[in-house]
Amino acid sequence: MNSSSEPSHSKGPAETDGGTIAACVILGLAFLIGAPGNLLVIWTILRYVKRGCHTVVLLLHLAAADLLILITLPLWIYSLLRTWVFGEIVCKLFVHIDIVCMFSSIFFITLMSVERFLAICHPFLMMRLKSERIMNGCLLFLWLLALLLGVPVFITQTLDKSDGDEQCFSREFTSTTQAITFLCLETLLGFVFPLITLSVCYCLVAVQLKKMSFKSKQMSKSLINAVVILFILCWLPYHIVNVIDVLCIQLSNTEHECVPKSLIFSTGALVFISSSVNPVLYAFFARSFRGGLGESYLVKLFQEVAANTHKLWEHALQQQPEGSKCADRADVELSAFKNVSVCSEATSLSFSTELKM
């Protein structure tokens, strides 16, 4: 994001040239693929998959955040081709939606890695935390935190009228201190700290899995890893531009642009693409469950994700150096936790009933 501009994913040239048309085509494809795809993911999870499986719940909220970003695309495309005719309030609102969904997406992905870390490295602690009430509380907190972190948009976002036509691409800061503060806040909380958390969790989980010598299907692990890697690859250039802008402001004590607009717009396109690739990713991983594309391939995929998470947790419990007291405690809490393992069976029964109807 440039210090004097709206977040890079909504930037574009004012005139309808070849680059603008190409960008609109890419954004249009992202909308046509991502919006129906995320809707299908949301509908499948809500209709067929038990929400007691927390990893699947996080994938549900991730799809919802991606969908919220994608539904703003038609207005951005129109603005790129024409001009912004929806007023400053709608401008602030739409940029706020994009920023909030950016934060919430990385928060949900980070929570997935933290949950996996607790399930494998601290299974007894996971017992106490693995409840629907706690998960709903975490989700509510993360959404509210994302909404709070998006508030600066209402302070700084403004319409750009420099080229005669109004565009929703500009931000105005009252000082270089304010610009640096907002840019650092977005980059640190929206990328750097979550990335550090992801890295630490994945490293510790990898070490623990080697000790456990646990063998199971790798599809669930590969799917979550792919979601994380794609998110990082799509958002890393965006935040690199943020860092360059901060350095530019700090060194020059001005708020002029230090990054070419073509590069800013390219990093912005990656952001929208990141919101549309997850359904394609799910379809790719689910193709082994069924030859054709239908609802069942997604249902079985999410069943496998839920079952694999539970198996890892259960195996981690068995690897703990516990005495008879801990063993009794594990047996009691394990029986209470069986609703997770029943998740796949209940989901399968639900889906089979729907097919017969």
Automatic annotation (TrEMBL):
InterPro entries named in the record: CCR1-9-like (IPR050119), GPCR_Rhodpsn (IPR000276), GPCR_Rhodpsn_7TM (IPR017452)
Subcellular location: Cell membrane
Positions in coiled-coil regions: none
Entry's transmembrane regions: 20-46, 58-81, 93-114, 134-155, 179-205, 226-252, 264-285
Pfam family, one: 7tm_1
Topological type in the membrane: Multi-pass membrane protein
GO biological process terms held by the UniProt record: calcium-mediated signaling; cell chemotaxis; immune response; positive regulation of cytosolic calcium ion concentration
GO MF, any single term: C-C chemokine receptor activity
Gene3D superfamilies (UniProt xref): Rhodopsin 7-helix transmembrane proteins
The entry's keywords: Cell membrane, G-protein coupled receptor, Glycoprotein, Membrane, Receptor, Transducer, Transmembrane, Transmembrane helix
Domain G-protein coupled receptors family 1 profile as annotated: residue spans: 37-282
Cellular component terms (Gene Ontology): external side of plasma membrane
Similarity comment text for this entry: Belongs to the G-protein coupled receptor 1 family.
PANTHER family attached to this UniProt entry: CELL ADHESION MOLECULE, LEUKOTRIENE B4 RECEPTOR 1-LIKE
Name of the protein in question: Si:dkey-148a17.5
Organism in which the protein naturally occurs: Kryptolebias marmoratus
